[in-house]
Amino acid sequence: VPNRFSDELRNNPALSLSKGQKKEFPTQYTGFEGMREGLREDGLMLDVINAKLTPSLGLLTEVLVQQTAVAIEHTLGEKSEWGSFNVKDVSLDITARVSGRVFAGDHLARDEHWLAISKEYTIRVFGNGVVLNLFPPLIRPLMYQILPSCRELRKQVKDARKLLEPEAQKVINQRKESKESEERPTKNTSNCFAWMLDVARGRPLDFTGGQLLLSLAAMNTTTEVTTRCLLQICDTPDIVQPLRTELVNILTEFGWTRSSLQKLKLMDSFLREVLRVHPLASGMYTTDHVNVTPRPSAKKSHQHQ
Ligand code: HEM
Asked: pTM for this one?
């Protein structure tokens, strides 16, 4: 669908991402917790993102910049020889390390086991959803028990719990010790465990499911966008110098802050253009016929001169 319809479609009540996902994914099953957390009626994780993560981005810019440098160094290193890398793998690895720092904290962002789970989870959830849907509903519960891929998904979430719950418990203990109120300002050391506690207000919490939802939403989307940008740069290398000049000018004058990022106008146009040329798809569930408003067009003229 052309981009010009996006606002109209986004606000159309007959279209829903979550209704489609609820239909397609057996979120009641173990293994699908990430999807389940994202589809909760009470919108807990949306509150985490809107009320906590997004307002903290200013405070987090410095952390993100430092972590990106560490991640690039770890993944690509300083090589004296040319080497080949798979662009998407590199991009996924860097994304997992950087976003993992914000979502799950410093310790887990360095834990290779958690990084592997956070990188693989999306593909496993979507893959298993598709495979289970190939079977008639009546035998799906049986297939869920015996399919090796479903068993792997369950094991992955069990492993994730073992790694994540102690980290969540640390945050709970810190809270108890410091007896800080729920309204305290967000520090840049906070992570999503703390934010989940902050916004819960009596709602049930699944720390592992919440983190898996963030992996599900952020890992492959960000990787796709980065990969497409890098491939576009390979395709049209003339864009590198103007992008670099803009970065150097803005960063020299203002440093790395959230508002400097907003001043990167060419970068912004580049990202938008890459997404226009190589769009990301999003499936929607329709509850009614959907018509889009046609673009006003000039009538064909029959005047001859
Ligand atoms: C470049 C990266 C990203 C892209 C391209 C992207 C794209 C999308 C798209 C297309 C949707 C579906 C919207 C709809 O159809 O209603 C979506 C939903 C969502 N995204 Fe992202 N996303 C990105 C990064 C992130 C990150 C970093 C987070 C979390 C921190 C996130 C969290 C979510 C959530 C929670 C939803 C579901 C929203 C809802 O149910 O209302 N996304 N994203």
From this structure: 0.90
